[in-house]
Amino acid sequence: MDQHISHIFGRDKKKTMGTFKLLQISDCHLGSTPNDTLLGMDTDQSLIDVLEQAQRTESPDMVLCTGDVSNDGGPVSYARFLCLIDEFFPSVPLAWLPGNHDDPDNMLKVGQHPLELAHHVNGWHLIFLNSRIPGEEGGRLGRAELQRLDRELSAHPASPTAVFLHHQPVPVGSAWVDQYVVEDADAFFDVVDRHSQVRLISWGHVHQEFHQRRNGVSLIASPSTSVQFLPNSDEFKLDPAMPGYRTYTLHADGHFEMQVVRAEKKMYSVDMTATGY
Ligand SMILES: [Fe+2]
pLDDT tens digits for the chain (277 residues)? Predict the structure, then answer.
């Protein structure tokens, strides 16, 4: 873990006055067998398509996966994920956090890759939260995680801050998935509202793009590297949009730019009539 963090701090020194590019992928849903499918989609192949697109287009300083790395929480799926990241972005630091489909114990066992808590890069403070409730689809941060968030923010009031978690803390406009809004979202925003340095909050879970502003903070969802959920649909419905990723360019003065990029259009054999997953 120390080696991993010092690598990031080393980059920080060189890039203090420049920009820091974060590549966010989410909801890869890899199975325990290579080329396992989710609603017909080969999730290894769709992740590879996204990573190929990112490799052609970006030079990230860090790769971040905001949960549901695995579909079944099996250690083999995490080993394959780490191999793929290493293949496409060797020597780029990786941060990951658990989603409802993940097993944090197995994430830790494979390759000894830590579950990140926080980093300081290019003047920014990145905070990674665990919103997973074991065995449940929905999310909750809980007292300990909210206290940690408050401590992190209190300790670095002058650092523009990005907060990452798996579940959405606000409804995104689809009743079926909004039943899984972070249960203690009110307490979460009570903490956020006390710290004016928070610039953005971002998550996965909803498998779609979303952006809203709240009290000057950008609230952002990122697409999945696998199947996409149709926005603004109250019932489960898939979106034919391609798998994708999001980038954030973090400037030392606290402003940032972001962009969603999707893999090149191709036909995946996805069951578009599926009514759940
Ligand atoms: Fe997911």
Answer: 333 332 333 334 344 458 999 999 999 999 999 999 999 999 999 999 999 999 999 999 999 999 999 999 999 999 999 999 999 999 999 999 999 999 999 999 987 678 889 999 999 999 999 999 999 999 999 999 999 999 999 999 999 999 999 999 999 999 999 999 999 999 999 999 999 999 999 999 999 999 999 999 999 999 999 999 999 999 999 999 999 999 999 999 999 999 999 999 999 988 888 888 8
User: In angstroms, what is the span from residue 68 Cα to ligand 1's centroid?
Assistant: 5
CA of 29 to the centre of ligand 1 (A): 7
E strand map for the chain: 19-25, 37-38, 41-42, 62-65, 94-96, 118-121, 124-128, 161-164, 198-203, 210-214, 217-221, 228-229, 238-239, 244-251, 256-262
Q: Enumerate domains of the chain plus CATH numbers.
A: 2-7+20-262 (3.60.21.10)
CA–centroid distance, residue 251 to ligand 1 (Å): 29
pTM above 0.85, yes or no: yes
Task: Tell me the sheet residues that pair with 248.
Answer: 22, 258
Distance CA 38, CA 271 (A): 9
d(CA 157, ligand 1 centre) in Å? 32
Q: Calculate how far, in angstroms, residue 167's C-alpha sits from the geometric centre of ligand 1.
A: 9
The CA 204 to ligand 1 mean position distance, Å, reads 7
Q: What's the gap in Å between 46 CA and the centre of ligand 1?
A: 14
